[in-house]
Amino acid sequence: MTARSSAKYYRLNTDFVPNWVGHVVLAGLMALMPALVAEKMLLSGYVVLLPISLGYVLRTIRPDGIFLTVLIFPFVYNFLLHMGFYNFSYSLVMFFFVVGYWLKHYEGFTRRDMLMLTVLSLVLYFCHIVSLLTAYMAIGLLTMWFMGCALAHQLRTRPFTLQALPAALRARVLVPLFALLPALVLVAIFLLQHGTARGPTPPGAHLWHRLYHLAPLISYDEREGLWSTVFVWLFIAVVGYLLVSKIAHRRGDRWDGLLLVAAGYSVVYFAAPDEMSGGGLINHRMSLYLFFALMLWCGAQPYHRMVKRGIQMVAVGIALALLGLRVPRYVELNEYLEEYLSGMHLLEPNTTLLPLPFSPRGYSPDGHILSSRVAPFMHASGHIAAQRGIVDLQNYEAFGNAFPVMFRPHLHPIVHIWNGMQFQSPAIDFLSYPQRTGGRVDYILIWRTGEDVQDGPVTKFYRQVEQSISQQLEEGYERIYISPQRGFLQLYRRKAWRD
Predict the structure, then answer these.
(1) Does the structure show a pLDDT above 90 at 39?
(2) Which of the residues 251, 288, 329, 397 has an alpha carbon 20 to 30 A from that of 279?
């Protein structure tokens, strides 16, 4: 869609919101290559950079601890990535770079170092605010721990004096704080603009279950939970082995502050709501950082050569097992996505599309579910919008105010088509949308109708309004396409749509 046409439905979000980095990078790539290739490039960058960023921190902490980079492999293809949270995925990369850069220059920041830390933290903010706050939490806790360790060492080796304290506070607290301050100001502005409204905190038993099975590693197949649980036990075994060794040898060092960071993340994980300030899945995100902190602490410890090899073999084995479960599902889902996209050549540019995915997670003709947790068909229409130049009236990022673009209020689909998406009193009215708003619903995409489909609250919503949808389609639309593969996709075009 041309900029002028899309501007009718979208407006730029002028608030200082995060979530800009992925959009800017993807837009730049799409200026050079087709949309699908650009998306693959964006994802490839994340897959390559995440291990590199962890290796950067591990090398800073202890050069021979870099072998633990293999522990990141099972985390690469996580639930949040599969859900399409690309900004958050890149924030994992930036989290390691920010923490690693601060650790590398902790003993003394030059002006250049301060500037670089400021830039890195700002990039992290514009990736995702949760990752920024967890990075700042790690830096704050480690600063206190390191200062405490230095003070304890001074008390053991020479008489206590306050003369050196102001210089130490200035170099190790005030200077890095000044570098981190701009991003912190943006956080404050964001919270003032978006508020701190929060949802309920999930029950403790539910959170323990998620943590024990490392739920962010489970995406398409419940069998992934077996391997994610094995991965948790690998962490338990390694941490237990190291703690026993430390206690037996009475060996402690300043890097034990990373256990304090892990403990802090644990408290936040169990105390935080799952939704706040318009963002969701907070507990899922926080569980990742708990394991990241443990990785860094493990990377600061010495290992016997055989233990190193054992950790590497188990971690790589788990990553391959998870990949082995997912690749067949990727192949299967790609076939269904091809069907989903098979009719997009019929959609004229500079038009609007309303997708109605009756089965966002997907079911095969014989009734088996294609994805246990991820909803690959919920927003697959975004591929159509990007490739055909149309407005996707189910663009969830534009529904709220946490992303670079927003729907204009007088045309907002949630308000004027879905009646606020109220599951308790469902209603949908796209036929009168033009008369009420001055907008258009040129095409309707129906995905996977059928009485055998039961796929959560979204499917239940569409089932409740299915009769209304059918009546509106019969009155104002004509079917122009049904997919030949399985008949799961139906496309409807507005009658007299060229008006």
Answers:
(1) yes
(2) 329
pLDDT, tens only, 267-304 = 999 999 888 877 888 999 999 999 999 999 999 999 99
Of the candidates 216, 210, 224, which has an alpha carbon nearest to the alpha carbon of residue 320? Answer: 224
Q: Please spell the DSSP secondary structure of 176-213, one letter per residue.
A: HHHHHHHHHHHHHHHHHHH---B-PPPPHHHHHHHHHT
User: Residue 183 and residue 190: Cα distance in Å, rounded?
Assistant: 10
CA dihedral sign of residues 102, 107, 112, 114? positive
What is the spatial distance between Cα 362 and Cα 448, in angstroms, rounded to a whole number? 8
- In angstroms, rounded to a whole number, what is the distance separating the alpha carbons of residues 27 and 12? 15
**Mean per-residue pLDDT over the chain, rounded:** 89
In single-letter form, the type of residue at position 251 comes to: R
Element (H, E) at 124: helix 111-125
CA distance linking residue 386 with residue 2, whole number of Å: 11
Quick one: which of 13, 7, 1 has its CA closest to 406? 13
Q: In angstroms, rounded to a whole number, what is the distance separating the alpha carbons of residues 65 and 101?
A: 17
CA distance 256 to 116: 27
End-to-end CA distance of the chain: 17
pLDDT in tens, 364-399: 777 778 888 898 998 999 999 999 999 999 998 998
> Is the pTM here over 0.90, yes or no?
yes
Confidence of residue 25 (pLDDT cuts 50, 70, 90): very high
Helices (H), 250-302: 257-271, 282-299
Query: How would residue 477 be classed by pLDDT, with cut points 50, 70 and 90?
Result: very high
Phi/psi for 383 (5° steps) reads -65, -40
Q: Which residues, other chains included, contact 386 with Cβ-Cβ below 8 Å and sequence gap of 6+? A: 30, 35
Distances (CA, A) of 139 to 42, 52, 68, 191, 454: 28, 20, 21, 21, 46
Residue pLDDT, tens place only, 347-360: 999 999 999 988 88
Cα(155)–Cα(182) distance, integer angstroms: 36
Nearest to 97 by CA among 128, 51, 62: 51
What does the alpha-carbon distance between residue 172 and residue 105 come to, in Å, rounded to a whole number? 10
In the structure, what pLDDT confidence band is assigned to residue 75 with cuts at 50, 70 and 90?
A: very high
| Residue 270, Cβ density class (10 Å: 0-12 exposed, 13-18 middle, ≥19 buried) | middle
Q: Are 255 and 300 in contact (CB under 8 A)?
A: yes
Residue 428 to residue 464: CA distance in whole angstroms: 10
